[in-house]
Design brief:
By secondary structure, this protein is α+β, with helices and mostly antiparallel strands. The protein is built from 4 helices and 7 strands, in the order αβαββαβαβββ. It has a single domain (5-177), classed as Cyclic phosphodiesterase (Cyclic Phosphodiesterase, Chain: A, Alpha-Beta Complex).
């Protein structure tokens, strides 16, 4: 799901605050910050139309809603992070329901269903060599409730990710309105 400019700017400010505290992190460029509802992996380009149709079926039952982004954290834990993320404080239930509906619709095309519970987050960076980092853990703890913005969810996007030495570049292939 694409994020509005004001939210990306706020997340970028948090990333810039963390950069001096975190070692060896591949930070996500502000233009690439997004909220993933379903990762598809490598997809045959001839299947895009069928995927868009499945996404439309999955999104048809959802009405627009707001998601409040708040708080920073890390997977698997702030004490030994691999992924630094921004979380959500409101809108988790409708977002999880939407992710589940999309997962179900895409399963009909052969995409494996998710085995883990949906965890709404925006990835800010990935640590290349995970290790304990007390300074980073403290900075994440201090921002565990930081307000980061509101995202109006009224559509979902099918995105293409192209990897390069400079990081991933994302392109929207289709946008599907909710409801």
């Amino acid at each position: 799901m694409l994020l509005p400019e004001d939210v990306r700017a706020r997340l970028d400010a948090e990333t810039r605050r963390l950069k001096p505290l975190a070692r060896d992190v591949a930070w996500i460029a502000p233009a690439n910050l997004h909220l993933t509802l379903k990762f598809l992996g490598a997809v045959d380009p001839t299947c895009v139309d069928a995927i868009v149709a499945a996404l439309a079926r999955g999104a048809a039952g959802a009405a627009p809603f707001d998601v409040v982004l708040a708080g920073l954290g890390a997977f698997p834990s702030p004490a030994r992070p691999r992924v630094i993320w921004a979380g959500t404080s409101e809108g988790r239930a409708p977002l999880g329901a939407l992710a589940g509906a999309l997962d179900e619709a895409l399963a009909g095309l052969g995409f494996p269903r998710e085995t883990r519970a949906f965890s709404a987050h925006v990835t800010l960076g990935r640590i290349r060599e995970p290790a304990r980092d007390p300074g980073l853990a403290a900075a994440l703890a201090a921002a565990k409730d930081a307000p980061l913005g509101v995202v109006r969810v009224c559509r979902v996007s099918l995105m293409r990710s192209e990897l390069s030495p400079d990081g991933a570049r994302y392109t929207e292939l289709a946008g599907i309105a909710l409801g």
